[in-house]
Amino acid sequence: MAGGAFVLIVSRLSDFTTKDIVRIAALERDVMRDPLTGAFNRRYLDHKLDEEINRSRRLSRPLSALILDLDHFKHINDTYGHPTGDELLRHVCMLIDSHLQTMGTVVRYGGEEFVVVAPDHDINAADALGNRMLRHIADRPLILSDGTKLTVTASVGAAEFDHNDTPAELLLRADEALYVAKRNGRNQLRTATRRQVVTAALEPPLCPFPRGPDGLATMDERSRQQF
């Protein structure tokens, strides 16, 4: 084979590989991102929690998960319309992401719920982080096109990873803590402990929402309207 032909083949292979890598990266980004807010989605959350749980076990480092739910979001949609509701979701996602920086990862969990995965945060650090996020959101209203300031509050449930937890169990405890925050007036954070899960097995369930096949609480439309 002539030297020039060999160089041409290698060059074209290199170009193809570079383009292929870019294309694959773009596809992965689209698959792992929520199209509305640009936050990571639940598919990414599954991967991220597995990764961080393995890291926590290997290095004996703390790990916490926080579930944040916007208060009275249905009322906002009904009053201002769904486009404004979508804009508010993007606004809140941006606020969470800008506040977290390198401290954690924000995921749109569904509807008006976001999950924050916070490596190296025990429950006290997660409590402080969650309360800072609540103030950050409440202090920065969304300015609508007509100049209206749309202030929103949120409720947060936080749970620290126990080394016997599965990802579903960690999120379940955060979800139950979120329900307590909602039940006690909203615009606040509540933390979960391992003891709450043990107690729940002996007493009526803390969270009345139906459970999905993975054990996580789900909220139908009628349930969500209560909050």
From TrEMBL:
SMART domains from the UniProt entry: GGDEF
Domain of life: Bacteria
N-terminal signal peptide: none
Annotated ranges, domain GGDEF: 61-194
InterPro entries: Diguanylate_Cyclase (IPR050469), GGDEF_dom (IPR000160), Nucleotide_cyclase (IPR029787), Rev_trsase/Diguanyl_cyclase (IPR043128)
GO molecular function: diguanylate cyclase activity
Reactions performed catalytically: 2 GTP = 3',3'-c-di-GMP + 2 diphosphate
One Pfam family cited in the UniProt record for this chain: GGDEF
EC number assigned by the record: 2.7.7.65
EC top class named in words: transferase
UniProt-recorded name of the protein: diguanylate cyclase
